[in-house]
Structure formats: structure tokens, C-alpha cells
Known about the structure:
Order of helices and strands: HHHHHHH
Structural class: mainly alpha
Amino acid sequence: MDGLTLKQRxxxxxxxxxxxxxxxxxxxxxxxxxxxxxxxxxxxxxxPKIVEVLNLILNQEALTEEFLVKRLKQIIQKPKEGDGVxxxxxxxxxxxxxxNSSKVKVEPSELPKxxxxxxxxLKRMRKTTQKLSVGG
Length: 136
């Protein structure tokens, strides 16, 4: 961790432990303000030296695709626990590990023109919504 300040080293240690930039910044930078901690975490996670150290440590821990998927699922299922910094960090780690997928552009199909077509579309949407809310 050469080249990092004491606070940055603590941030890295806490980030690895909690996998949450805001928590790490709250501890390392002795602040009680979540907005300030979020800004610090965001800035730290963009600094090349910190990114390099995190990359080395995370590679040593054999961070797997399975872990990333599990953690992202937790963030999605409990959005109050998954803040933007945490999600951004997971995205960065995913990119570092080469798990980023190519973006697919989705074009909407032609819009229905008649009331009957609109009703058919609405029925399909309601059916899909019911399936999603029931779980399958």
C-alpha cells in the first residue's frame, strides 16, 4: 500500500472488509455525514493508486462471478442497503474482473394502432406483472 496516506490505507482495509465505500469512508475519515462519506468514497474509488491496491487485494481474494452476482442480487432485493456507491463499486469490480456485458440497444416494437391492439397489449402487461409479483 505504498503511496497511500494513512486514511486511504484505512479506507482500503475497511472497503475490503465491508464491501461498501460509504462505510469505509465513515470509518477512515471520521465523519458522521453519509453524504460527505459518499463523496469521499466516490473520489477514492476513482484514484488510480487506490484502484490499483483494491484490484491487487480483490484478485488475491479470488473474487468470483458468483460473489458478484450474489451481492448484486442482495443490492437489488434490498435497495435501502444498496446505495449508489456500493452499486458503483460492484460495477467497477465487475469490469476489473472482465464480467461486463456488452450493452444491447432495445428498440420498441411498433405501437398498437387500434383499441383492440391496445387492449391485447395491456392484458399481456397485466399477466406479466402478475407473474412477476407472484414469483413466476
